[in-house]
Amino acid sequence: MKKLPLFLLVLLLSPVVAFSQGTLSGTISDGESGDVLPGANIIVVGENLGAAAGLDGTYSITGIPVGTYTIRVTFIGYKQIDQEVSIASGDNTLNVSLDPDFTGLEEVVVTGIASATSKARAEVAVSSLSTDKLLEQNAYQDVSQLLNGKIPGVSVQPSSGNVGGGIRFNMRSSTGLNGGGQPVIYIDGVRIDASEVGGFSAGGQDVSMLSSINPEEIASVEVLKGPAGAALYGTSGSNGVVLITTKRGSLSSADRPFTINYKGVLGTNSQFQEYDQFTAGTPETANAFFRDGDIEQHSINVSGGSARVRYFASYDNRFEEGHMRNNKLERQSFRANFEAFPMENLTVRANTGYTLNDINRPQNDNNIFGYLGNTLLASSPFVFTDSLAIEGVANIQRISRFIGTAEIEYRPIENLTLRGSIGFDGTDLRNDESFPSNLSYSGRTNGERNILNRRNEQYTYDFNARYAYDLGSSGLTGTTIIGSQSFNRILRNFNFTKQNFSSELVTNVGAGADFIGGDEGFLHVREAGVYAQQEFAFNNWLFATLGARQDFASAVGADAPSIFYPKASFAVRVDQVASMPSFINFFKVRAAYGETGQLPGNLDGSLLRWAAEPSGYGAGAVTSFIGNIEIEPERIKELEGGIELGMLNDRIGLELTGYLQKAEDSIIGFQNAPSSGQTASSVPFNVGASTGWGIESSLVVDVVRQRNYGVDLAIIWNYQENEVDDLGDAQPIFSGFDTNVIKEGLPKDAFYTWSSRATFNDDGSYAGAELTTTDVDGDGEPDRAFFGLPYPKHNGSVTLNVRFLRDFTFSGLLDWQLGNSVYNNTHLFSRRFGAFFKRNEALVNIGQVTADQVGLEDDNIPVYDVGTEDYRRAAEVVAGTEFSLQGVDLDGNWIEKADFVKLREISVRYDFTNLMRKANITRYVRSASFTLSARNLWMSTTYSGMDPEVNFTGAISSTRASDFLTLPQPRVIYGTLTIGL
Amino acid sequence: MNRLFVIFTFLLAGTFVGCDTFVEDTDLPIDSIDDPQLSVETQVEFIVKGVQSRFSTTADRLLVFAGGLSDEFIFDQNVPNATFPSFAEMDIGDITFANNSNDGVYNDLGELRFFADNLLLRIQDIEFEDTALRTEAEFTANLYGGLARYFFATYYGLDKRQGGGIITDDPENPGPFVPSDQMYAQAIAKMEAARALGDAAQARIINTIIARIHLFQGDFASARTSAEAGMIEGDAAFESLHAVDNTNYYWSQAGIGRNQWVTDFRYNAYVEADPAEAARIPLEEVLGNDGTTVYYRQGLYTARESSLPITKWQENELILAELDIRGGDAAGALTRINQVRASHGLAALASADMLVLMDERDKELFTMGLRLPDQRRMDIWHLGPDTWWYLPITQNERNINENI
What we know:
- The complex is a heterodimer.
- By secondary structure, chain A is mainly beta.
- Chain A has 3 domains: 20-98, Immunoglobulin-like (Sandwich); 207-607 and 635-749 and 789-820 and 899-980, Maltoporin, Chain A (Beta Barrel), CATH 2.40.170.20; 828-889, no CATH class.
- By secondary structure, chain B is of the alpha+beta class.
- Chain B is globular.
- Classes of the chains: A mainly beta, B alpha+beta.
- At the A-B interface, strand 27, strand 28, strand 29, strand 30 and strand 33 of A face helix 1, strand 1, helix 2, helix 3 and helix 4 of B.
């Protein structure tokens, strides 16, 4: 009975409660064109309420308690609107027009490990790439294709034309001497394995673990390009941090509780340029190995959500044959991402992705079983391996990979956010290689079977707290962040080889009669760091941040090194405090300083280590590593400054950043003299120092934007330099092939070798070659000379998007590199085998041989008179195509300038959506489009080889820009159909 | 929700204080150990095998390269799978300092010397319960330390005509260059120390090697003294042992594994002249890329794990035969030569002189790396005057070692 009054009270008040809620509805449209914006999100801030605009741009949010709220309207590519609205009971109407965000200033970008802000307030140069538009126009094979040419200060290159090949990031000036110049990559907060895995060599090209990342799953990529931005990511972040966020569910609209998107791709990879007598010993045979490789991709995703739960699930299957036989990729990707908001102050997220990726690698590069090695070098084909045997080699990497994060975000009090996440990246890789027993292979007796298993586990733990507060009434606000981050990696691998198979039909490893080899490896490393950051903002025009991180890392045989990294940055919105010309609507100046580092190798802190080596005597102890117990991490300091301008109401955006990087305590491997017998490894010392600097810029212009027409343009230009300042009296460090060097006074990895030129007798006749250098330094040997850089000084891109006749979109990306060189080892070896046309022709020109003697069929090759200019020029060619003289290798003769400009991407898209609207079928099919795209359609280069971007030792190697029988990149043409339901 | 706050606070605080212990809690590598862990008696056998293993990876390559630099083997790109420019350089005696094939074996030779000398030092610090083990270790260290020095003296040179090598005990102050004569003296001292520790058969092997050195140096009296105490018929050859995963380099680069080096055509002529010679010079035909030229690869080492003789009693007899001829005892020499030939079922010769002896050495010591020093000392060099008689001390050594 005591409950009765309460029951009556509820009953009496219930109509009041019902009538105290209102509904908000309206239309969201483009403020300039008036087009409706299907999919735009509108939420009631502070309430778990919101909706997405339907196909007609309308939305409706029901059940809003009567009161005054801030309504936030967002859509990718548009400026966010926060608008105060009073909700009365019953129906309320709010029509919203969003202004385009041409320059991305409204975009929220990550500026540190636990900090994010709009680009307009960012104190560091952060580049952010939203994939929406790009994935509408293109179907990328991997993240290198997605990113290249789109981010100032960063280029991303494949190392060959292999489908599923290696990927190299070139980050700013890559000043540090350690870490391979590669950034740390996170996907949804998980630090992922971005290794290149060779397994059983196919000649030089390894498989990047990034090939298992499906670009279709990526929503955005943010890049912190150096220590100034990445300091709070700590050790290993000295070459920058790449943060990949996968797609998430979004609010459903009233007319569609969920959306389904299908993307289908059909296309071909084909030979970009055929070999000819200048580039191949047997060009017709070489070209015959190329094919039009099929590309077929099917991608489907489902997404949706309410104010409480959002979800995104996708499946993608990409089948891609390379333009050379035996090269294939078959990748299946599954993704399921969930977000839940069980309470107003609690968010729970789970991001999971699973990939199955099978990659067949062709034999090429430094390899007697290679397609190109057997057709480019000699004047007759297959001098090393029969064509059937080349085709018979199967090298397959099968990768299964899971990347997942569980994340919880809790706001116990206003302005305090606690965030914790645990992430896992687990990769199982199996490499199978088979040489059939019925075919003949040098060094393989009756066939060979190789098996490699590699299991990599990476755990990332991240906990942080962020508290924002006002500091009095002066307009000064503060944000304090503290946090910790830990990383745990366990890597195991195992390999096994047998030979002598009785039948090519039974190929399990147990069928091999001869054990050839087997081994295993194990690595366990951990890193952990704690960090704190204090941010200040004053009246929305002055922003400043101080931060620091203390890192710890595991080291075998030594105490865990502890490293301190500081950072500081500020930005001033000049347009807020000074009068600006009317055409400037945004002007920000920023500066940042930060330090990060690169860890020593796991064993670097130990002294001398011994391993077991099998032999005819049994396994014996041999040295395996020589360390240094005093080794410390390399430290990179970076100072960057920049300006950002928005003009003509943000129709023009200009961003200019300059940076200076200093690497100290770089770990230099001192090679002991071989006569010491201690050459199992180089000995690490913290003696290196280097400097790098550069400028990166971007210009975004929204030229025209009308209902039926639009033109926008983005130009990126980067300039970078670096120089090795100090090696602590160590001898120069050469790459494995003795061409790239780390040497005081030279840029990192510079080509540093010898070359030759012609000498002439008194009568003008050719008298042989001589070195272009002498022994000036008096060390008893001819001096080496600088022959250029394996990476560009200038690079950049132009992106042009043209929308015409309302529903057509043309998009093109042109990128270039200037100031880089390539070591053409293919031509060198062709010359060694006597099939290098340029030399043979020159030999005929100066009368040293007849055309017949060098296998040239052309009887019209002229023989020049001694002493003429033509004769001297031909003689210089002869001298300049020698490969050794006076005990040194003349690699400099084969290093060429390799500037290039490539039409990297081009596409034309037709969007059927408006047509379907007119036909009134959008109730069944929400959207549809067809795109015809091409990649690598055109190139102009100073390089005489086939592709100035390749490297025969893979993407991440101390040997750089060396073209040696490496597969050039293909031309890709494909069509894409998208359907939205 | 207070529980969440407590958990968060606890985790955050925990990670702040536990970073260093977290990173130190890792599993150790399974494939290598720290140096001090070897300095116990139970690991001595492991170290001994390491010295022998490095000997095997050094000896086979040096012998192949010595054969390539001499007139024993030829490199021709017309031979299928003959591709290495580094081998081409050796074949014509125009060897760059940075020749990477030479670089690899020079590094291994340095390691062999270091492993052997390091073993000798390490056993001083170990308290042995098993004295036989200590003796074995000391014997191994001295024998292989001596062989390493012998290899330096015989196969390496600072310049084209100056043989010798470098021993560096202090990596921060490498060098200096030690000419062949001095290096041979060091080799002999080491081997004599080993001889004192070995059994009778081992002593005879060492005496044969010492006799060889004296012969190279032209010290014929000492050579005779050593050879007379050297190997005798019935003694097993002293060999470099190989395994499937530590392959005989003749098999992998000058044989069935890969035909980079093939024999000089005169070896086939030997066999064609007397088919019985195939017993000691087994050859296999290889058709050239041109489809017409027939080459001949060695057929002695037909498996990856084939053992490679370093010395054998026949060599000792031929040393003595040479000394007999030099001493005017042609009849004595003929007896020894025929004894060697009989061991292969070859018919006896009717006479012997220095030319006959050199032919017999050429055939009997085929693939043993002795043709190169024989060509030098007998003045029968087959290449031009400006060619290398030795493998050059490498670019890496020259870059780092300021004392040469």
